[in-house]
Amino acid sequence: MSNTILLSSGSLRNYGLNRIFEIAAGIGFDGIEIIVDETADSADPDYLRRMMKEHALPIPVLHAPFAFIDPPGWEKDEVGRVKRSVRLAEEIGASLVVLHVPFFTDRSFRSWLEEELASFQATTEVILGVENMPQARKPGGKLGVLLNGPSILEVKRKGIWGLLPAFINPACFPASDPDGISRFHRVVLDTTHLATGGLDPVDAFELLGEKVVHIHLSNFDGREHLLLTEGEIDIPRFLRFLKKRGYQGTLCLEVMPEYLPTAGEKNIRRLFAESLNLIRDNLS
After folding, report:
1. Which residues, 6 or more positions from 270, have their beta carbon under 8 angstroms from its beta carbon?
2. CATH fold label, 5-283
3. What is the tens place of the pLDDT at every residue in 228-269?
């Protein structure tokens, strides 16, 4: 099995896209997942095609803009932004667009996802994958670790959260647990987001199975999106499980630059190379 392993542009969002492509190509990633953000370059098809050509690195996956980000000139409503993301993906040859499950206040987008996403999917060859989001907002550091359990069974014992009003309930993204997200035909699995609710990625994958088309890899210790070796998730175990299951989809390293030990490019290259080797070693 030979999976395509990508670097998320969000992992180096404090750098320019040209530099991100250069670093990813130099380390040996198979491609880039572009997160459309407030910069014009991330949504410019001509510029993105130029980056792919100059660095011989494709963009197989495009991440639709987060709800709180407004790309210049884009629609303000979530459905319009999804459709614009698909058009951009078609222009640059990306095969997958990542969507977030909606924030609890966005009832119209949630209705569209549940009632119209399937019919819209039939209009394009670009796959629309819905990503699970954090289960709960909790304190960081070691306290965050203590407040998170090891498996799907643990989150069931935390059902009291569901009794709280939405403005108090830390689960700000309804339908984001594996049961809820299983209603969608294509799913993007995020290991950190699972861990915020005490969910084991192996258990989640077992439940979702062939619906999973893409995986965001990072670790968690109460802080989200850490390097693969720095948190409480057993990432090598999960990768070996994927190999055993014959997972054929793409994977993406998606970390937060704020938690990298240093901003120096030499050390970033070393750390990301170690992460890439860890992924490949456990899948091969």
Report:
1. none
2. TIM Barrel (3.20.20)
3. 999 999 999 999 999 999 999 999 999 999 888 776 899 999
Q: Is 128 within 8 Å of 120 (Cβ atoms)?
A: yes
> In angstroms, rounded to a whole number, what is the distance separating the alpha carbons of residues 283 and 272?
17
Indicate the domain borders of the chain: 5-283
Partner residues linked to 208 by β-bridges = none
Cα torsion angle, 247, 177, 128, 28, sign? negative
For the full predicted model, state whether its pTM sits above 0.90: no
Non-local CB neighbours of 243 within 8 Å, separated by 6+ positions: 1, 282, 283, 284
Q: Comparing C-alpha atoms, which of 34, 36, 35, 28 is closest to residue 5?
A: 28
Structure-block tokens of residue 95: 């095969």
Q: Which segments of the chain are extended strands (E)?
A: 5-8, 31-35, 61-63, 96-100, 127-131, 187-190, 212-217, 250-253
Give the count of beta carbons closer than 10 Å to the beta carbon of residue 283: 16
CA dist., res. 152 & res. 177, Å (int): 9
